[in-house]
Automatic annotation (TrEMBL):
Keywords: Membrane, Transmembrane, Transmembrane helix
Source taxon at top rank: Bacteria
Pfam families: Glycos_transf_2
Presence of keyword Membrane: yes
Gene3D superfamilies registered for this protein in UniProt: Spore Coat Polysaccharide Biosynthesis Protein SpsA, Chain A
InterPro entries attached to this UniProt entry: Glyco_trans_2-like, Glycosyltransf_2, Nucleotide-diphossugar_trans
TM region positions: 237-263, 283-306
Domain called Glycosyltransferase 2-like: residue spans: 4-146
UniProt entry tagged with the keyword tRNA processing: no
Species in which this protein is naturally found: Bacteroides oleiciplenus YIT 12058
Protein name: Glycosyltransferase 2-like domain-containing protein
Length: 329
C-alpha cells in the first residue's frame, strides 16, 4: 500500500461525505482511507459504510481526545508507506494523489504538504475567508505560497509524511491547537526533508461564518506563543506582523477622535484588500466581505498572540491553566 489517508472527524458527517466522494474519484488508486471518529455525538459510520464498496476504507470510533491524538490512533492502524493527513472539511481535486505521486517520483521527500483553494460551491463568506488565509496582503505569504515569507511548514489539513518518519517522531503531541506546526517543527529539527507540493492542493472550507473564523485565528495566535515557549527559535519576525497590525489599528482608532486622518491607513488597507479580492474572485461582494475577513484574521490572531504573551510570558501560566477553556473540554 503506497498511501494511507487519515481523517479525524468530529461531528461532521456531511463534510466527510464530500471528502470521501472526492477520494472515490481519484485518478490514482493505490491508497487506503482510515477514518477516526473522535467521540462524536453525531457519528459518521453510515457515511463510511456507503463508501465501503468504492474505497478501501476503515472506520474507528474512540473517546474524544482532540485531532492530534486521533491522527496518531489512525496512524497506528495504517499500512501505507506514506501517511496523508487531511481535515474532514476538505475536498480533493481528481488529480490530488497523482500530483503527490509525480512529485515523489521526481524527488523523494520525508514530509510534504500542499496549498488550498476555494471551491466554486463555497459561500461568498467562505471565499472571503479563503482569500484572507491565502493572500499575500494578510499572512498568506507565511503559509507556503510562491511569495512565502518563511520556510514551508505543512499544516494538518493537507500534510504527508513517511510512515517510518512519523513513527520515529512519535506522531502528534498532546497540544490541542498548533499541534500540526509543533509536528512540522520536529520534522525540521529531526533533519528530515520537507517540501511544498504546489500542485497537490485541496479545497479547504475552513470556517462557515466570521464568528467561528475569529475563534479559529484567535486560537492560532495563542498557539504561536505556546510554540514559542517550547521552541523559542521558532518565533520569527513574520509571526509578529498580526500582533503589530492589531496594535497599530488600536492606536489609530484611539487617535481618530482627535484627528480623522489617522483612519487613512486603515481605509487604504481596506481598499487594497477589496480591490485585490474583487479581481481575484471576480465579485465585488466577496471583495467587501474580504475586508471584514482580513481584519478578523489579523486582529483575531493578534489579540490571541497578545493574550497568550501576557498569560504565559508575563504571568507565567502553563498552557493548560492559561487556556483550558479554549483547548480542553
Amino acid at each position: 500500500m503506497k498511501y494511507s489517508v487519515i481523517i479525524p472527524v468530529y461531528n461532521r458527517p456531511d463534510e466527510l461525505d464530500e471528502l470521501l466522494c472526492s477520494l472515490a474519484g481519484q485518478s490514482f488508486n493505490d491508497f487506503e482511507v482510515v477514518v477516526v471518529e473522535d467521540g462524536s455525538s453525531v457519528p459518521c459510520k453510515e457515511v463510511v459504510e456507503y463508501y465501503q464498496k468504492k474505497l478501501d476504507i476503515h472506520y474507528y470510533n474512540k473517546p474524544n481526545s482532540g485531532p492530534g491524538q486521533s491522527r496518531n490512533y489512525g496512524a497506528e492502524r495504517s499500512t501505507g508507506e506514506y501517511l496523508i493527513i487531511l481535515d474532514s472539511d476538505c475536498i480533493l481535486p481528481e488529480g490530488y494523489l497523482t500530483a503527490i505521486e509525480k512529485e515523489l517520483q521526481i524527488s523523494p521527500a520525508d514530509a510534504f504538504g500542499g496549498p488550498d483553494r476555494a471551491h466554486e460551491s463555497f459561500t461568498d463568506i467562505q471565499k472571503a475567508i479563503n482569500y484572507s488565509m491565502t493572500s499575500f496582503f494578510t499572512t498568506g505569504g507565511i503559509r507556503g505560497g510562491k511569495k512565502k515569507m518563511d520556510k514551508f511548514y505543512p499544516r494538518s489539513f493537507n500534510m504527508g509524511v513517511r510512515q517510518d518518519v512519523y513513527t520515529a517522531l512519535g506522531g502528534f503531541s498532546k497540544m490541542r491547537f498548533g499541534e500540526d506546526i509543533d509536528f512540522s517543527i520536529r520534522i525540521f529539527k529531526g533533519g528530515y526533508q520537507c517540501r511544498l507540493f504546489p500542485d497537490a492542493w485541496v479545497y479547504h472550507k475552513r470556517r462557515t461564518d466570521l464568528k467561528k473564523f475569529f475563534k479559529q485565528v484567535h486560537n492560532s495566535g495563542i498557539a504561536r506563543i505556546n510554540l514559542y515557549k517550547k521552541y523559542p527559535e521558532s518565533l520569527k519576525i513574520v509571526h509578529l506582523l498580526p500582533a503589530a497590525f492589531t496594535l497599530g489599528v488600536a492606536i489609530l482608532l484611539l487617535g481618530a477622535p482627535f484627528c480623522l486622518y489617522s483612519l487613512t491607513p486603515i481605509a487604504l488597507y481596506a481598499l487594497l484588500v477589496c480591490v485585490d479580492s474583487t479581481i481575484q474572485n471576480r465579485s465585488l461582494l466577496i471583495g467587501i466581505y474580504s475586508i471584514a475577513a482580513s481584519f478578523i484574521q489579523l486582529i483575531g490572531y493578534g489579540t490571541g498572540f497578545w493574550r497568550a504573551w501576557w498569560n504565559r510570558c508575563i504571568r507565567g501560566k502553563d498552557e493548560f491553566e492559561a487556556f483550558k477553556k479554549n483547548f480542553y473540554k
